[in-house]
Amino acid sequence: MTCKPERLLVALLLGAAVLAAPLAAAPGDDAIAEALEALERGDGVAAELAGKRALEEGAPRAAVAALVGEGELLQGDFADARQWLGEADFSAETRARGLHALARLEVSEEDFAAAIAAYEQRLALGGETAPLWVDIGRMRYRIGDHQLALEAARRAVELDGEDPRALEFLAQLTRDAEGLRASLPLFRRALELSPDDVELMGHYAATLGDAGENARMLVVVRALLEEDDRALMGFFLQAVLAARAGEDDLARRLWWRTGGVYDATAVGLTVTGILEYRSGNPAVAAEKFNELRRLQPFNDTALLMYARALVANGEANVAIALLEPHAQRPDATPYMLLLAARAHEQRGERDRAGQYLDRAARLARASANPLPAFLPRDGSGRIEFPENPVLQMRQMLSEGRADEAGAMVAGFLGQFAGSADLQVVAGDVELLSGNNAAALEHYRQAGTVRADWPLVRRMVAALAAEGQGADARNLLAAHLAQNPRQQQAAALLGRMQRDAGNPARATALLRYAASIGVGPRDPLLLADLAEMEALIGNPDRALDSAAAAHTLQRGNARVAQVFGRINAMAGNEAASAVLLGKAAGRGIAPSQ
Q1: Are 482 and 181 in contact (CB under 8 A)?
Q2: Rounded to 10 degrees, what is the CA torsion of 306, 308, 309, 313?
Q3: d(CA 240, CA 52)
Q4: 285-331: pLDDT as tens digits
């Protein structure tokens, strides 16, 4: 373990005390020591009481202000904390602690300029610690300085590689930047150092679950519940796992035990919405997904789930108002197009539905367009949050105003070069302008702190545009290895391997993509899989996949065409003739 400067100072003071003649204790010394001990164990109430007792015993206010203020801060009482911390009147012995607490208070009240000033004063005193850099890093991440946040996390671990909070913070950033699996060793090491930390167990277990390590996740959850049998996080994580596995009754029972604590979170709204939808309550599901959409307006999946519930509830008019602006874009996903078609069919607009079905039936390939098929809009089709500068630039790009967006992002990058969001927008500008190499450079900078699926998809588009198909496939493979539940990545990689003439790899990937997430309900994916199964000599599997695709979307021309060809290969000439005849027409039939 790294020897912390404040520990060394205490040791020197103790050594000096042995050599010096005994002196009378200063007023309030015992109470101050009690307050410090309370703060070390995170007991804000005890720290406040001990600090105030020291004041009553004659200690100067400057000697206790940092201690009482931090105690109030731990209790979440910001107003009282400011009375003790706001003037930054701290004794020399407590000044470092007081400035750190003051900075945390400013962050809690979102006065980031004041927080930065307080942190700068604290750093000027020297004696850096891992907890100090963790707090600095978390503040930097909140204000969008993602690169500097990562640097702070690394500095914290460099100062003390055995500080659990520092390891946890670096693990969280590693999860974003490198992937789920890359973060697991850091979480595991943090738990080894703090095996009783229930919150840390929860983060580790959640990451294991997202990485598909369900058995290991359950081991950690059981340990968590042994440590605290009332820990709601344990029931929450098990409920999520049960819902993913389709064990809806078990998921409901486990969710009930969380006592509603997670109901308003993004994961909570997603899980409860899905459970209500599966139970045949689309109206309730729509309410949940609408709350999720308002909580995360840039989450296009939330919009799709909301629209799907609306259609199931017979509210096609509302669904179309939300979907139409996105479905009209050239880079709309097949699922969005199918959903828009269903909504138009519900209104009896078969021609409009047919147009969307025809578009959805086209072969899915790596898109050359980096823009998301989504900008958050309200029920009237108006773009929400028009004051958001990142959203303004995305709107400019969606309208073909790349020059304006480029000028705007250049100005912001001059101030916030470490922002992953701005680097992505800058990359989009370059990609739409045909500057693929420059786009990749911006994307790579963004990826050092947040290599999520939307960014990887953009990088694939840039590499494909440069003719670097092998590099694009390798990038997708690396992302999938770290994030094995990323269904869209598996499907895209499978299709790219197909197009590259690697049928065995393509089939394995498409099988996997069809087994996770929305894969079992994606008719186009199942049709692609059926073709590959037939190509590598698996006629029975090919027929099963083609039949499943046709059951899901009987009105899709491509699905009918694949099913018809597979039937012909199996010797089912009559069925093949009917299906191929339907495929030769518009391919529209009532949705199943």
Answers
A1: yes
A2: 130
A3: 45
A4: 999 999 998 888 778 888 899 999 999 999 999 999 888 888 887 77
Please tell me the pTM assigned to this model: 0.81
Distance CA 358, CA 362 (A): 7
Strands, E, within 322-468: which ranges? none
Measured distance CA(383)–CA(385) in Å, rounded = 7
Q: Answer whether 532's CB lies under 8 Å from 507's CB.
A: yes
Q: Cβ–Cβ contacts within 10 Å for residue 355, how many?
A: 18
Q: Is 377 helix (H, G, I), strand (E, B) or coil?
A: strand
* Beta bridge mates, 377: 383
d(CA 200, CA 212): 19
DSSP structural state of residue 385: -
**Assigned CATH topology for domain 522-592:** 1.25.40
Looking at domain 365-467, does it have CATH number 1.25.40.10? Answer: yes
- Residue 364 per-residue DSSP state: P
CA separation for the pair 510, 508 (Å, rounded): 6
Per 3-state DSSP, what percentage of the chain is helix, strand, and coil (rounded to 5)? 70, 0, 30
Residue 228: pLDDT band with limits 50, 70, 90: confident
63, 54 contact by CB (below 8 A): yes
The torsion angles phi and psi of 160, rounded to 5 degrees, stand at -150, 95
| Separation in Å, CA 319 to CA 228, 323, 343, 416 | 44, 6, 7, 38
Tokens 């993602």, located at residue: 146
Domain ranges of the chain: 26-127, 277-351, 365-467, 522-592
26-127, what's its fold? 1.25.40
CA–CA gap between residue 170 and residue 309 (Å, rounded) = 38
In contact, 513 and 480? CB cutoff 8 Å: no
Distance (Å, rounded) from C-alpha 463 to C-alpha 466? 5
Distance of CA 258 to the CA centre of its chain: 22
* Residue (of 280, 364, 381) closest to 328 by Cα position: 381
Spatial separation of the C-alpha atoms in residues 354 and 540, rounded to whole Å: 31
Rounded CA-CA distance 487/510 in Å is 10
Choose the most confident range, by mean pLDDT, from 53-67, 287-301, 553-567.
53-67
With both helix axes pointing from N to C terminus, report the angle between 389-398 and 402-415 in degrees, rounded to the nearest 10. Answer: 160
Fold match flag (26-127 vs 365-467): yes
Residue 388 near residue 417, CB atoms below 8 Å: no
